[in-house]
Specification:
- The chain has 337 residues and is α/β, with parallel strands linked by helices.
- It folds into 2 domains: 171 residues, 3-Layer(aba) Sandwich (Peroxisomal Thiolase, Chain A, domain 1), CATH 3.40.47.10; 147 residues, Thiolase/Chalcone synthase (Peroxisomal Thiolase, Chain A, domain 1).
- The strands form 4 sheets. The protein has a 5-stranded mixed beta sheet, sandwiched between helices.
- A hairpin with a 3-residue loop joins strand 12 and strand 13.
């Protein structure tokens, strides 16, 4: 008689966030200070955006990579990870130090991480979730076991501080996460989306190959963020809510099964509208916009860093972002620690 040997089915390998660290520059720009620079007020900014202050990177020759390196060094120390053990580093940024080399290359050099793959991802405010999605593929296939994903932006470098529509919104910061394999926790599902027709509403006019820098482009102030607020707000609310609710439907999630919404911190109204469509109470929504502003690719890792002591292993998180391009993205994961 033959014996049938039954083997337990192993859970799939998932990419789990096993550590997070953030960095914000020491210099703070308050609403009161902005009111001395442009025609605005603390009340006007707070009512329309929810922002009270933002951090600005100051110092000659300092760029996005310097903040990214601070976040990565802190992450390595916190998780007890040796630089030599990191196998891949991805940096999501809209404000790279140079056209080339990538800011990821520079971060690796500053942190003593050698001879590994590193590259930048540019998807504006959705960049961190794009990069996290890419990292998850390398983990799930077994190619790598330790990946660092950085979200960092020095938005003050491309903001016109005479334009009150944009200068009140943005700050500088970086956040980094360590991603490792797990059969118990991790990223269960992701969605990345884009629509290039949104370009006219949110972009930087000059500085690329279509309109290279000239004395004329500088004189016309074309190297700053151009944003059409009403159009961006409309699309952001619709797409962030859409990507979050689609993840819920795909994974048979109801609002009572979601522990935290981790939204991109662009505008408090957008965050509240997204949570409302997901039927989530404010108590389960991560909000840091009041003290950091919109730090673009850094907002989501900064949220995780800020709320880390409130998270517990197994918590279900929905991450959602919307950015210029247009781009939007989401992720459903369980917290690993």
């Amino acid at each position: 008689m033959s014996k049938t040997k039954r083997t337990a089915r192993k859970a799939p390998v998932r990419a789990a966030i096993t550590g997070v660290f953030g960095y914000v520059p020491p210099d703070v720009l308050t609403n009161a200070e902005l009111a001395q620079m442009v025609d605005t007020s603390d009340e006007w900014i707070t009512e329309r955006t929810g922002i009270k202050e933002r951090h600005i990177l100051k110092g000659r020759g300092l760029g996005t990579s310097h903040m990214g390196a601070e976040a990565v060094r802190g992450l390595l120390a916190k998780t007890g990870t040796a630089a030599r053990d990191v196998e891949l580093l991805i940096c999501a940024t809209t404000t790279p130090d140079f056209v080339f080399p990538s800011s990821a290359n520079l971060v690796c050099d500053m942190c003593g991480i050698r001879s590994i793959g590193s590259f930048d991802v540019q998807a504006a405010c959705s960049g961190f979730l794009y990069a996290l999605t890419i990292a998850s593929q390398f983990i799930e296939t077994g190619k790598y076991k330790k990946i660092i994903v950085v979200g960092a932006d020095k938005m003050s470098a491309i903001i016109d501080y005479t334009d009150r529509a944009t200068c009140v919104l943005f700050g500088d910061a970086a956040g980094a996460v360590l991603v490792e394999p797990s059969r118990k926790f991790g990223i269960i599902d992701t969605l990345i989306c884009s629509d290039g027709a949104g370009m006219p509403h949110l972009h930087q006019k000059a500085g690329g190959s279509r309109m290279p820098p000239t004395a004329e482009t500088v004189a016309k102030r074309l190297h700053y963020v151009h944003q059409e607020g009403a159009a961006v707000y409309k699309f952001a609310v619709a797409r962030m809510a859409e990507v979050a609710t689609n993840l819920m439907k795909r994974n048979r999630l109801t609002s009572d099964k979601i522990d935290w919404l981790v939204p991109h911190q662009a505008n408090l109204r957008i965050i509240e509208a997204t949570a409302e469509r997901m039927k989530l109470p404010a108590s389960r929504v991560m909000i840091t916009i009041h003290k950091y502003g919109n730090t673009t690719a850094a907002t989501i890792p900064l949220c995780l860093w800020d709320y880390e002591d409130r998270l517990k292993a197994g918590d279900r998180l929905i991450l959602a972002a919307f950015g210029g391009g247009f781009t939007w993205a989401g992720a459903y994961l369980t917290w690993a620690y």
